[in-house]
Amino acid sequence: MLHPRPSELSLSAFVAHYGDIYEHSPWVAEAAWQQGLREEHDSPGALAILMGKMLQNAPAEQQVAIIQAHPDLAGKAALAGALTQDSTREQAGAGLDKCSKEEFSRFEALNEAYKNKFGFPFVIAVKGLDRHAILAAFEERLHNDVLTERATAIEQIVRIACFRLTARALGE
Ligand code: GUN
After folding, report:
1. Tens digit of pLDDT per residue, the chain (172 long)?
2. Is residue 124 within 6 Å of ligand 1 at its C-beta?
């Protein structure tokens, strides 16, 4: 169960506690609250589904903006310690802070190639993946077309949010 309980919060309190579940995009939490939060939404799974719907139903420009709000994996911001707390933990959890020089260079080249092709950064829910699996997925997804990649990135962002809410419920 989430604490504080979403169903008991005012709009501003809900956004204060859960506005960061979607990277730099508190509007997702606000839209979810506007739907009317019930007791069932005090569970991380149900709240994740509701928040995910807000994103899936949002206009394409808003979807692209939220993809663009994500930092590069193993990128310069990560090296500089400039990520949100969640991103820092997720990237470290996948061992991205332990890349060799060669692996950092590969990430750098792939990040650039991906952004040049699609106009937004590569996003993947990294929980349970190591850097080798992430690099393999990165190379494979570079072959997709832009509509497929936009839909894939949004699915991955919804997964990331689900993991974040579950971690909150567990007090992590
Ligand atoms: N997947 C999980 N966390 C992150 C992140 O911080 N950036 C990107 N690009 N993908 C992620």
Report:
1. 999 999 999 999 999 999 999 999 999 999 999 999 999 999 999 999 999 999 999 999 999 999 999 999 999 888 889 999 999 999 899 999 999 999 999 999 999 999 999 999 999 999 999 999 999 999 999 999 999 999 999 999 999 999 999 999 999 8
2. yes
Task: Name all domains of the chain by residue range, CATH numbers in brackets.
Answer: 71-145 (1.10.3330.10)
For ligand 1, say whether the CB of 70 is within 6 Å of any of its atoms: yes
pTM as predicted: 0.95
Protein residue with least CA distance to atom 4, ligand 1: 87
List, in order, residues 6 or more apart from 135 with CB less than 8 Å away. Answer: 103, 106, 107, 110
Which one of 24, 70, 132, 143 is the catalytic residue?
70
Q: Which residues contact 97 (CB under 8 A, 6 or more apart)?
A: 74, 78, 91
Residue 34's H or E segment, with its range, is helix 27-34
Residue nearest to atom 5 of ligand 1 (CA): 87
